[in-house]
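Predict the holo structure. Ligand: guanosine-5'-triphosphate.
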Amino acid sequence: MFTTNNPPPPEKAVLAGLKTPDQDPVLFDADLQEMQMLCTTAGATVSEKIVQKREKPNPATYIGRGKLREVARAMSSHKCKTFVIDAELALGQVHNIEKVIKGKVIDRSQLILDIFAQHARTNEARIQVELAQMYTLYPRLTHAWTHFSQQVGGIGTRGPGEKQLEVDRRLVQKKISDLKKKLARIERSRTTQRKSRKGTFRVTLVGYTNVGKSSLLNALSGSELLVENKLFATLDTATRRTYIPGTGTVIISDTVGFLRKLPHHLVASFKSTLEVVRNANLLLIVMDASCPWNSHQLQTVNDVLDDLGAHDIQRIHVVNKMDLVDDALERKKLELAFPDAVFISAFNHENINQLKEIIKERINEYEKENSIAAIIKRKSKELTTQQNRYPA
Ligand SMILES: Nc1nc2c(ncn2[C@@H]2O[C@H](COP(=O)(O)OP(=O)(O)OP(=O)(O)O)[C@@H](O)[C@H]2O)c(=O)[nH]1
Ligand SMILES: [Mg+2]
């Protein structure tokens, strides 16, 4: 008997988005294109994109019922069973949509969680993804039972149902607390490692997903971290030591990429991984020169950094993938849009030495400021001792 090891054909999906009058049209296009890239990353090809213009979402089905029937027709003509929607759906909406399309519907959070689950390689990343899944499951559990008792109602839906809900909720709560304990243990061992590296200057790479953070870490340190044309290729913090001529060794860390409308449970679960952002002496904010909405992406990055409490850490803006911009006018536009940035290519090493030079200057300034701060601290301590010895 012959067996073939061909991988299964990619799952097909119909993708839809809702355009409301209060939305920025540029951001709407960016979001929909991003959803398509998320689908590809998750392993599905988008057979058709459907856009509905509406004043506001339909509370029962999110997009209108007529449009939903159009989705169902598209799914049947493309022979696909998956409908992906650029929205956060309530469980009731999931049920109502699935009844019409006779297939499964996936919302933005679910799609992102699925990618994170596929890409989690280390123990810590797996625990963080599981924690985010539990956080998502918890309110849905309550909703599922409430929904059930409202729908069926009356005799038979009280006692045992409520008890079952209580049992399920307690199980999820217990799981959440176990996962948090495991993460705390990993975090403690990381704090010990960090203490042993105390004194070395710490540079952390941050930025939107797929802009080339891991590629830049490789270019700066000669490492070979995984680089992929996929969203969220990196979920773990990789740390490397590298030599910056004129100053010595620095520690450079790579981080998980950011995304607009990232499910907040996910950010909460990845907080300990992102500690490396708060503990940095210098942030390199990496951007993609070839992305038409890079300034919107920068806004998202700044918002997440504020959320993480990293607003006062000094930063260098780095515009990467300059090898993809040959047009002189386009280069000029980028220089005007990001006047204080360094323009590089991690791919062909354009301006990597210039970037190292700028990092060196920042380290020198930091050390100067630190030594001035140390002198002020020492002098004020001496003054206090003197005042205590010779009170007026
Ligand atoms: N042309 C070009 N492509 C680049 C450059 N830097 C990175 N890339 C490509 O961009 C894609 C993403 O690169 P990564 O380094 O994985 O990006 P990342 O920011 O670490 O992505 P995530 O970990 O998924 O958030 C890959 O296909 C890289 O080959 C560059 O300077 N020029
Ligand atoms: Mg990466």
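The longest strand covers residues 44-53. Residues 217 and 254 are 7 Å apart (CA to CA).
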